[in-house]
Design brief:
18 helices; elongated; alpha+beta; single chain; 41 strands; about 800 residues; four-stranded antiparallel sheet
């Protein structure tokens, strides 16, 4: 029941209707660009108002406040802030790829600084903006009433420039967003030209064909795009992810130090915030290698300088910065634009075709307008020529008429003229009666006839309209085209793997008999003289001993071989890095070892193509070769490396090339040297062949690869060692007894051989005892003596302690 002006309504229906009205208003009238000109309403109104004011690119600048007032008063009934912010953005060379407003004054910076107040800045249209308004006065686009119905404004601009793609757009509407990246003008023109040239099969043109011309976005701030998969997805479906990365280079500043210089940053990244983020990471000790950070950007370009400490690995620091700062960012492409007033998600080809359709409509309307104008002018000239042909009669008719209206009527009746022709004759000046003027009228009429024929031909042949678009694009490319700023990097992973963030450092990796593993920087062990006591290498539990000490890089892959003939894989950086006194981490926390399985050999592999084979030897003298590539992918549960006979254990593994020689040393002092080629290459699960004929009770103590110019270093359990030239070990056939490499009479004093390594002068040698004492000496400090000798004291051991293993550290 209605009471007065109160009308009962459904709150549900009212809310739905009001919200939809609001949503459509935001979508159509504020947030989204039109596919035809790539402009939002506020941007279109700014350019049209500047056109009305005559602010061409070759005219003086005008105060921004005056321009904003013109837009507000005539076309845009919103706040002045919205208008000025939109105008300022069109003048920022870090926001738009091609500026539409030529600004004078402070219009903001890439550091996030706000533009100066509108009363302090001045602006005018850029040359490119004028291309957006070419032919707007030739009935090329529809006009509509402004907000108060007193003026007319264009619905879209003629847009001779493909602005939607070259400048992109971003906006948040109700329930939808748009984020269109900018592109290179020349590339877009080439793609449009290709579509025009193959317009008949436009539906068949693929994304890959278009990407021959538009390989990806071209951001105003430059930078780099990683790969094209995200770009291809965006161009094919209208949405995708483009990974952007800053352009950097590493400089050597001397004294073993480097610095990273950032010269281009990803699009829409605030430079000041980026620097603050890097500083924060340094303060939080997440990037401790940074020694200094400063912004040296000036008028010549951007330059963010990141100086590193002497020990830093610049590539690893850069990778960490890429992962944790906006130096690498993602641009979420969403090609959403208004098509006939409705929001549509557009693949690249569809956006290009909509632009071509718009330009076809504009040029068709322009042609009709020019044809109408030409036909009207030709009609007038035809009347003038008729009057000139009978000038005396015309003059007499006019003189007899009492007034102009009667004269016009008599002319129309007597000479069969239209009202417009009769009026033109009445308005004709006497000077037009001269012979020269008559000739000019005739020439103009002839040219108009040709023009009319040309325009009629355009309207009759749509292909000619497409040719006009093609010519416009060629002219735009020639006049405004410029080189691409954003690099397209080859296909690469945009995600930084864990190893990308690990510094490439030299470490010592130790593993005890009870299975504790740790990684310690090689610099932790200082060089000492032969015979020293060493330093405490680790805290050893009761009855535990160190079995393996391996020199490696943090980026190496560790292959761990067990006594049961299995192999496991572990990245070196996964081994916890601790101080030299720490006990380490149980290896079972890192590998899925069996309950009675122990690691007996460990090697580090920088690259799996660096050697051809893995050569393995057992305690009972078996040996085999297997291609290294068979171990490139080891599952977490491990793989069988070789088969073993009962009572045997896998003890040693070396990387070999196929044409080297091997040397095996036994605990009781025998050594045999033979060519690697005598050992056949077999599969992983094979047992292999015999390498040396062992005496009763003897076992193999070491195996290594022969380098003829090097020495063989032999170390015994009681700390005795010596270097012997490998030339003293003659090459034999496999499965012989070998030759003596230790004085058998001194075994009780020296103890059995625990390890042997091929070394050269300049190498470092690290010895570690069962009780955890570590000593590092240089190879040339160890005496070079003959085979059948006991050697010299290398390590002063405490009572009950013994040498457990050695490691050769290449210089």
């Amino acid at each position: 029941m209605d009471i007065g002006t109160v009308k009962p309504i459904s709150i549900d229906q009212e809310m739905r209707g009001s919200y939809l009205d609001y949503a459509m208003s935001v979508i159509v009238a504020r947030a989204l660009p039109d596919v035809c000109d790539g402009l939002k309403p506020v941007q279109r109104r700014i350019l049209y108002a500047m056109h009305d004011m005559g602010l061409r690119h070759d005219r003086p600048h005008r105060k921004s406040a005056r321009i904003v007032g013109e837009v507000l008063g005539k076309y845009h009934p919103h706040s002045d802030t919205a208008v000025y912010d939109a105008m300022a953005r069109m003048a920022q060379d870090f926001s738009l790829r091609y500026l539409l407003v030529d600004g004078q004054g402070n219009f903001g910076s890439i550091d996030g600084d706000s533009p100066a107040a509108m009363r302090y800045t001045e602006a005018r249209m850029s040359g490119l903006a004028e291309e957006m308004l070419v032919d707007i006065d030739k009935d090329t686009v529809h006009f509509t009433d402004n907000f108060d119905g007193t003026l007319q404004e264009p619905v879209v601009l003629p847009a001779r420039l493909p602005n939607l793609l070259i400048n992109g757009s971003s906006g948040i509407a109700v329930g939808m967003t748009t984020n269109i990246p900018p592109h290179n003008l020349g590339e877009v023109c080439d793609a449009l030209t290709y579509l025009i040239d193959h317009y008949e099969r436009a539906d068949e043109i693929s994304v890959d064909e278009l990407m021959q011309f538009i390989p990806g976005p071209d951001f105003p701030t430059g930078g780099m795009i990683l790969g094209q998969e995200g770009v291809r997805s965006a161009y094919a479906t209208g949405r995708g992810r483009v990974v952007m990365r800053a352009v950097t280079h590493i400089e050597d500043i001397g004294y073993g130090r480097h610095r990273i210089v950032v010269t281009e940053i990803p699009y829409q990244v605030n430079k000041s915030s980026l620097v603050e983020r890097i500083a924060y990471l340094v303060r939080e000790d997440r990037v401790p290698e940074v020694a200094d950070l400063r912004d040296e950007s000036d008028r010549r370009g951007m330059s963010i300088v990141i100086e590193l400490k002497r020990t830093a690995q610049p590539r690893k620091v850069l990778n960490r910065l890429l992962k944790y700062t906006p130096l690498q960012s993602t641009f979420g492409v969403r090609l959403l634009a208004l098509v006939n007033g409705e929001p549509r998600l557009l693949p690249l080809k569809r956006a290009l075709l909509h632009y071509i359709d718009h330009r076809r409509d504009v040029l068709t309307r322009r042609t009709r307008y020019e044809l109408d104008q030409a036909q009207h002018r030709a009609h007038i000239l035809q009347g003038l020529l008729t009057a000139l042909d009978s000038i005396d009669a015309v003059i007499a008719t006019i003189r007899r008429a009492p007034d102009a209206g009667t004269a016009r009527a008599h002319l129309m009746e007597q000479f069969d003229l239209s009202p417009e022709q009769a009026q033109a004759i009445l308005n004709m000046q006497l000077r037009r009666l001269a012979a020269l003027e008559r000739k000019r009228i005739q020439e103009e009429y002839g040219e108009l006839q040709q023009r009319i024929t040309y325009l009629q031909g355009l309207l009759a042949t749509p292909q000619k309209i497409l040719q006009l678009i093609r010519e416009d694009l060629a002219q735009l490319k020639e006049q405004y085209g410029d080189p691409r700023r954003t690099q397209i990097a080859p296909e690469a992973s945009a995600e930084l793997e864990e190893e990308d963030l690990i510094a490439d450092q030299d470490v010592l990796i130790s593993l005890t008999r009870l299975g504790y593993v740790k990684s310690v920087s090689r610099r932790s062990y200082k060089r000492q003289n032969r015979g020293g006591r060493g330093v405490t290498g680790m805290t050893i539990q009761e009855r535990d001993t160190v079995q393996h000490l391996l020199a490696a890089s943090t980026l190496d892959t560790l292959l761990l071989f067990t006594d049961q003939g299995k192999v496991y894989s572990l990245r070196a950086f996964d081994v916890p890095n601790v101080n030299q006194r720490a006990k380490g981490t149980p290896i079972v926390n890192l590998l899925k070892l069996g309950s009675r399985e122990g690691v007996t050999a460990v090697i580090s592999v920088p690259e799996f193509d660096q050697a051809e084979n893995l050569t393995m030897a057992t305690r009972l003298g078996h040996i085999k070769r297997t291609h290294l590539q068979e171990f490139a992918s080891v599952r977490p549960s491990g793989l069988i490396a070789l088969s073993l006979e009962e009572g045997d254990e896998l003890g040693w593994v070396s990387l070999t090339t196929g044409d080297q020689e091997l040397i095996l040393v036994t605990a009781q002092g025998q050594a045999i040297r033979f060519p690697e080629s005598e050992v056949s290459v077999v599969g992983r699960t094979a047992m292999g062949v015999m390498a040396i004929r062992l005496e009763e009770g003897d076992r193999v103590a070491a195996m290594d690869v022969v380098r003829p110019e090097y020495d063989l270093l032999v170390v015994t359990s009681q700390g005795y060692g010596k270097r012997t030239p490998l030339s003293e070990y003659s090459t034999q056939k496999r499965y012989g007894k070998g030759v003596r490499t230790l004085d058998a009479r001194k075994l009780a004093q020296t103890g059995p051989i625990v390890d042997a390594q091929v070394v050269r002068p300049g190498d470092g040698v690290t010895l570690i005892s069962a009780e955890g004492m570590v000593i590092r000496v240089e190879a040339e400090e160890i005496s070079q003596i003959g085979r059948n000798t006991k050697g010299v004291k290398l390590m002063d051991l405490q009572e009950g302690d013994r040498v457990a293993s050695i490691a050769r550290l290449e210089q």
